[in-house]
Design brief:
alpha/beta; 2 domains; 16 helices; 8-stranded parallel beta sheet; 397 residues; 15 strands; Urease, subunit C, domain 1; 5-stranded antiparallel beta sheet; globular; TIM Barrel; 36% helix
Length: 397
């Protein structure tokens, strides 16, 4: 796959990739690379299948204490997201369980989930905080991410999502956001614990004006803005993203199409999370075509979290996008690689071009289009990170 605008995945039959010092050195026909005198002594690993850049999952909530099985049971009985929240479920139930969990427990769970991402062909993930909602526990989550990073081959990018919901200790959203700005953001900057700041801009959570003010404040602490926007209805979150030039605006299910020209000018990546729509049993999936036709970079991510998207398999996300969001398989592949990297501000990654980081996943397929066609299982047989094999089918290294 090459960084171009016409979604040409650059298929090479009987291909090979040469890697040196963790980067792609050369690529082409196997017979051509193997006949190159400079590569004759190179170690050769033969993996039959379709090789793609490892997925970049730019939106996850992978640090949590417990699955929200009670929410799941209520939803399957017909309760809405709002009704579940009113019964004590939703984000706040994850906050309660996380606050009672130790750093060691959370680290063990994150290590487990990292293995699952790798097994399914993902090489890089963003990981949000947001289930602590106070200084002690938000810092705890970010420190768990930091402590796990050197222990896994999966690349972890930390995001501070303290503005995920309003904890019970605060009577209103304004006072809670002031607390985050005055108490939590300075500590995150001091400890260098996050790269991005995110906020849940949605009715019942944080308003458009609050989101703009908060993200501008976070930028003063060196954090780049991200935003949860337009998930449940058209609320104005896209305009907040435009205002602060957010690196990505995520969910975006109910965007006013009149905002697309402004989104294009802002260079904000629109990140869709269709596995969440699927798990919530929604009939509505966003149509990606107007965004793509406008030239807006579109990413896809898993939204892996215990309440609304317990999905760590980006292969399923691709299939959802192709079958429910009117994306071509080629568009979806760019969305989970190069555009996912763009949503995290990463360069020279998620592409099998010379000089790019050698993050490669190999799938047991005859044609790359089968990645969306055969859904519901893991077709990945090997994951390579920076030129080293970190997973082979049946063996997580």
């Amino acid at each position: 796959m090459r960084p171009c605008s016409n979604f040409d995945v650059g298929v090479i039959s009987n291909g090979a990739i040469a890697v040196k010092d963790g980067k792609v050195l050369a690529f082409g026909k196997e017979k051509d690379l193997f006949s190159n005198p400079s590569l004759k002594k190179a170690e050769k690993i033969k993996l039959g299948g379709v090789a793609l850049p490892s997925f970049v999952d730019s939106h996850t909530h992978a640090v949590f204490a417990k699955a929200r099985l009670e929410d799941f049971s209520l939803r399957s009985s017909g309760f809405s997201y709002k009704e579940i929240k009113e019964r004590g479920g939703g984000i706040i139930s994850s906050v309660k369980s996380l606050r009672s969990a130790s750093k060691e427990e959370l680290e063990k769970k994150l290590l487990f989930w990292c293995e699952k991402f790798i097994e399914n062909g993902t090489g890089t993930i963003e990981v949000k905080s947001g289930y602590g909602l106070d200084l002690e526990n938000e810092i705890k989550i970010l420190e768990v991410i930091k402590s796990v990073k050197p222990k896994v081959s999966l690349e972890l990018i930390p995001t501070f999502l303290g503005a995920h919901s309003i904890p019970a200790e605060f009577s209103d959203s304004d006072s809670y956001l002031k607390y985050l700005v005055d108490k939590v953001l300075p500590e995150i900057k001091k400890r260098k614990l996050a790269r991005f700041a995110d906020i849940f801009c949605e009715d019942g959570y944080f308003t458009v004006e609050q989101s703009k003010h908060y993200l501008k404040a976070a930028m003063k602490f060196g954090l780049k803005p991200k935003i949860h926007a337009e998930q449940m209805k058209n609320y104005g979150g896209a305009r907040a993203a435009i205002s602060v030039k957010a690196i990505s605006a995520d969910h975006m299910d109910y965007v006013d199409l009149k905002d697309l020209s402004a989104i294009k000018k802002s260079a904000t990546v629109v990140t869709f999370l269709p596995a969440s729509n699927y798990f919530l049993g929604l009939s509505h999936f966003p149509d990606a075509r107007p965004f793509i036709e406008k030239g807006i970079p579109v990413a896809l991510a898993s939204d892996f979290n215990p309440g609304t998207s317990p999905c760590f398999n980006m292969q399923f996300v691709i299939s959802c996008a192709v079958t429910h969001m009117k994306m071509s398989i080629e568009q979806a592949l760019f969305a989970v690689t190069l555009n996912g990297a763009k949503a995290l501000g990463l360069k020279k990654i998620a592409c099998l071009e010379k000089g790019y980081q050698a993050d490669i996943s190999v799938f047991e397929l005859e044609d790359y289009r089968e990645l969306a066609y055969y859904f519901g299982s893991n077709m990945n047989i090997a994951t390579i990170k920076k030129g080293s094999v970190i997973y082979e089918k049946g063996n997580t290294i």
